[in-house]
Amino acid sequence: MEHVFTYDTTLRDGEQCEGISLSLEDKLKIAHKLDAFGIDYIEGGFPASNPKDIAFFKELATHPLHHAKLAAFGNTCKKGVAASEDVGLRDLVESGAQVATIVGKSWDEQVTRALQTTLEENIRMIGDSVAYLKSQGMEVVFDAEHFFDGYRANAGYALDCVRAAHEAGADCICLCETNGGMLPFQVEEVVCIVVGEFPGQQFGIHCHNDTGCAVANTLGAVSSGVRQVQGTVNGLGERVGNTDLLTVIADLELKMGFDAVGERSLRSLTEVSNYVAEVAGVSVPAHYPYVGRSAFAHKGGLHASAIARFPQAYEHVSPDLVGNGARMVVSELAGKASLLQKAASMGLDISGDDVDIQGILDDIKHREACGYTYEVADGSLALLIMRHLGTYKPAFTLESFRVIVDDREDVGAFAKDAASEATIKIHVGDERFVATREGTGPVGALDSALRMAILEGYPEVAEIELVDYKVRLLDESQGTGAITRVTITTSDKYGSFGTIAVSENVIEASWNALVESIEYGLMRRRMLG
How would residue 344 be classed by pLDDT, with cut points 50, 70 and 90? Predict the structure, then answer.
């Protein structure tokens, strides 16, 4: 299998994504994770441009990467300045990085209007900068900025820029689709011409996703001869983002017959996606190719039925190959096959002749018509099935609960001094318990009071943790009278699960979802030991 080199720019271009700010520790964690994954080049940022990047390169000088080459990013020398005298190029040499990636203009209008210099001087800047860095023993990647727009405006000059880098000894010349406006057939056509013009020169591709075609443009460029692909994890980047490097890697390995990180590393693709997202403080969209939670989820009844007999019908690759897994999603669209598989995955057997599967499906459909959705609520779905099976046994019964919200001091509209107090009266077996607790919010107070009330009978409740709480108005036109859907995500040593409840009263919905989270947590602890 021919190797395509992977070049990650999450730590530089990815950090330019709105809302992303990586600390030094974040950047180091991501760099070592990508190194272990098998990325060939990791771009660390601008050395000497800010204290964080200076510290990053210093740290990696003492704790080097094992597989990846570290790339320092910068510009060509300034106009009128010799490359050997340029401060920015000197910073690249002194960074300790093995690779220098320099960006230069290849669009004639960018040269005259942005750089405000002559076309000839820009050619000199490119060639001298590459030659100087090579003379310092560095591997050099030349990023031809705005190459495709430049080629469309003045093909001869854009090729002259590439030629200057080529003749100066650039190890790789990366054609940058900086504006993100090209379509695959346009990229393929131009790349074919450029690669043919410079035989033996390694080329790369760097795309942005403004037309939604970054991955397609990158793969098209590979088909046309480039052998280095640049991108970011999960497509982080300016505007709508860069090429999602993980999708490209999976496509190269599984669809195009190239080697990128290898079969073994490919199985950690989903883990890498989630890890970088967590460090960056974002979530992986559920519908992301290969790594998203819904990438191999099956909701339609016909799909689920077919998957049981012929997985390839609705799974273009096995989810195991990328470290993901298939999921059966039960909803009003579900059929019996979906429900059977979903129940089995939760340790519930509904295959017996005495089980009214259609009755369970009808109940689900009725509830979803009222606002429930079991796609994100495995805990509530399991309890619903157990009620139909007659195996549901409540851990406790409610006598009453009361919540008081007390705003003790009026210090303005932005005050955060309100406190909540919840009192719960419940029965565990023949015993009655009353508990009162305070919290910053009513749901937190209810959660705390409930745990206090049942702790004596169920000490294991201490290991069940509420980790997320969401509220959605189902009919916003009704304002404060709208039906409210509450979903709660709970975590224990076996993983996480969701519960759901619906009511016109947000506190009642919250209580019911909270109760189901505790009951399901206790139930599956008994089942799983």
Answer: confident
